[in-house]
Specification:
about 290 residues; 17-stranded antiparallel β-sheet; 3 helices; about 50% strand
Length: about 290
Amino acid sequence: MKRFIAFALLVLGLFIGSNVATERGVYAATTQEVSLSLSNGGVYYGEVQDGKPHGKGTATWGKYKTYTGEWKYGKRSGKGELITSDPETETPQVIYEGTWANDKQNGQGTLREYFKFSKYSEEYDRATAHQGTFKDGQPVSGYTVIKDLSLDTELVFRYMNDNVMVALGLEDSNDLNVPLKAENMSLFASLNFKKESGFLMQYTEEKKNVYQYGTYKKGPNGGTSLFNGTIELFDPYNDKISIGIVKKAKIKSYKVVNTSEELSKYRERIIKKKLYLLDPYISNFKKLYNQL
């Protein structure tokens, strides 16, 4: 009996020892830090397994592109940060912090991009930031901020998910620090995709106001359009409104009417009634803007 117990303990000891040795071997394979040349031209330094990046490490592609974070079987997976910047070209500076899968941005993250329209520009002409969910390298939901110094609408904010889209445009970034006013807003939209309803108010290139409301539907490329509803085009020079009735995405009737009040006041009255729709989003808009 004692021999059997001793033999059983010996076998158990060998079994456990074998497992420990195996686990240590795998651990060593995934934690040793080495340098590798990647097939896409990059250079990697960090943890590896079976000759591929696996664990934590850093890859660089030339002088201006670096990824630092987690890898899985040779691909960026897990949490990581990507930075690209080439001051000698018009290529945008890109900073992404968040999760990855299958070598692309997938999951939650923050993406910031800075554009120069000329490589001789001292400052960035356009900056964008998105915070939310990414799929295969593209933002699909969350908060977006666009600051473009070359446009009349200097700031655009947008929140979007599967159910809603809310957008706000301001002519001047300073208007973000004061209570929102209709005269400072160049864009205001709120769409409910689930109910297929909403409205949009914005300027046209001729400085006329467009106000449209009714039923909205998503297009095949992710865009939205008025399907059934009304389009009002304000003519501030003549105090007239051109009204178009839309059915199945086509204008079915059209007329021009005189207004009994100034169009600026009419516009302000419409927006004031809808400002509450921005309350759940404005705080996060400001936080993301401050990251640019």
